[in-house]
Amino acid sequence: MEDVEVAPPGPLEIRVKVVSTSICRSDVTQWQSTAQPDLFPRIFGHEASGVVESVGEGVTEFQVGDHALTVFIGECMSCKHCVSGKSNMCQTLGLERKGVMHSDQTTRFSIGGKPVYHYCAVSSFSEYAVVHSGCAVKVSPTMPMDRICLLSCGASAGLGAAWNVADVSKGSSVVIFGLGTVGLSVAQGAKLRGASKIIGVDTNPDKQEKGIFAVQNNNCMLL
Question: What are the domain boundaries of the chain?
Fold first, then answer.
């Protein structure tokens, strides 16, 4: 554990007091990878829920005290992809790989005046995180923080894969390879779209029970 300085939010940014965060496989992969730029010291984490502690100049959609989810691919709502309904390809707030903020290519973390790099422009393994307001989503204060943090990445990625990418149709059969967080979320998304048969493929026999529970019917089979 290290004490770090967290700068105030810049224009169009918010500072979030992180309440709950989960670890994604991509955090571990990036930490262990030798193929990526050597950006250390660095704070990982990108699946988080929290409370807005302060807002930067120009922020209109958030107020202090709002509950929020962080997202690692944001929406600027003005680039050609955002205005055409393809905000997952946002040109302004897309996946950030350099360890800095989208807005000015600098960091908001430091130790003794030296920069500490971000991860995916979120860095939720910290008590506070500064994110672009377009990389956060306001949520109801009644939602359980320790559960909804999964919606930041794994759960939404799986649900979106079934709902938007595969566009699962009613009565169809779906095969899912890997029943981790994303795979189980695909199963739930397929169920919501009316799939008649959901087949999970995984090498871990313990996943069968989880798969059946995820879709609440016995048509989820493990191969």
Answer: 5-152, 155-222
CATH superfamily of 5-152: Medium-chain alcohol dehydrogenases, catalytic domain (3.90.180.10)
CA–CA distance from 173 to each of 48, 62, 184, 194 (Å)? 33, 41, 15, 10
Residue 53 has, within 13 A of its CA and on its CB side, a CA count of 16
Residue recorded with tokens 């965060």? 21
pLDDT tens readout for residues 133-182: 999 999 999 999 999 999 999 999 999 999 989 999 999 999 999 888 99
Joined tokens for residue 112: 């003794």
Class (C level, CATH) for 155-222: alpha beta
Give the 3-state secondary structure of residue 42.
strand
For residue 6 the two structure tokens come to: 């967290």
Q: What is the pLDDT of residues 116-125, one digit of tens each?
A: 999 999 999 9
Count of residues for the chain?
223
pTM listed for this prediction: 0.88
